[in-house]
Amino acid sequence: MEIINWKELLYPYEQTxxxxxxKFKSIQKECKxxxxxxxxxxxxxxxxxxASIMDKAGRKQISPDRIEDEIEDIAGIRIMCQFVEDIxxxxxxxxxxxxxxxxxxxxxxxxxxxxxxxxxxxHIIIRYPLSTALGYREVFAEIQIRTLAMNFWATVEHSLxxxxxxxxxxxxxxxxxxxxxxxxxxxxxxxxxxxxxxNAQRLNEIKQNLVNNILxxxxxxxxxxxxxxxNKINREFxxxxxxxxxxxxxxxxxxxxxxxxxxxx
Length: 265
Ligand code: 0O2
Fold this sequence. Notes:
Elements lengths: L5 H29 L7 E6 L2 H10 L7 H4 L4 E7 L2 H14 L5 E7 L12 E11 L2 E13 H16 L6 H23 L1 H29 L4 H17 L2 H19 L1
Parallel strand pairs: 2-5
Antiparallel strand pairs: 1-2, 3-4, 4-5
The structure holds ligand 0O2.
């Protein structure tokens, strides 16, 4: 039996997940900077462990020399979304990159065609081009895109599957199927109040940025303005902050900007 050099085999996959993680996280950062809603709630990545690769190779009767050609999820990226609609926006973002910094090999829609276990998620298998010390090469990576509810279910089910070595008792399987249904309904329900939720989140973000700007202005003015004026400013800020009125906070911040500008002159 051929001995596998796991460190050497896994290294390109570690590079792949590190690069993909940066790319997806930079989409989040870009949206934040532009002040637009980001369909990506969070991203995580992992390289499959040697033991897990051995299990899968054994299950699928893949010989050691075929592992890299036949196991497509050694490099795994998981993208979590708040709403089902966001999943399709992320898919479009990935499709736009097809042929550029990644090549889509296959798409598996376990949302429209959920697995008998109840598993829901959208998988995109890609070939990812890598520049390594030894030259150019491509490796497989699997991108799983799912909602937070789908992820919760899959994580719990995965642990139980592991605990029972794949043979989950019928009574628990039944309850898991019910949970999958509940997760599906939760996603549906969330979608119906999506606009309400995203507006609230946006407003919260605007308020947080505004309060940060105000606090920065107050801190700068503290060194140059009269103590009396600063006391007044502090009191007004506390009142406006407690009243939670974004428009009034905006006006207040504009006044502070003008004050700061005058002191600078
Ligand atoms: P791990 O530990 O997450 O890496 P197959 O065995 O043929 O059904 P294949 O060819 O690996 O599956 O592709 P598929 O079905 O797209 O599954 C790839 C990965 O999706 C799995 O990797 C899981 O992460 C996830 N997945 C698929 N089906 C289920 C499911 O019913 N429940 C849960 N919790 N996850 C699932 P691994 O290697 O199985 O596991």
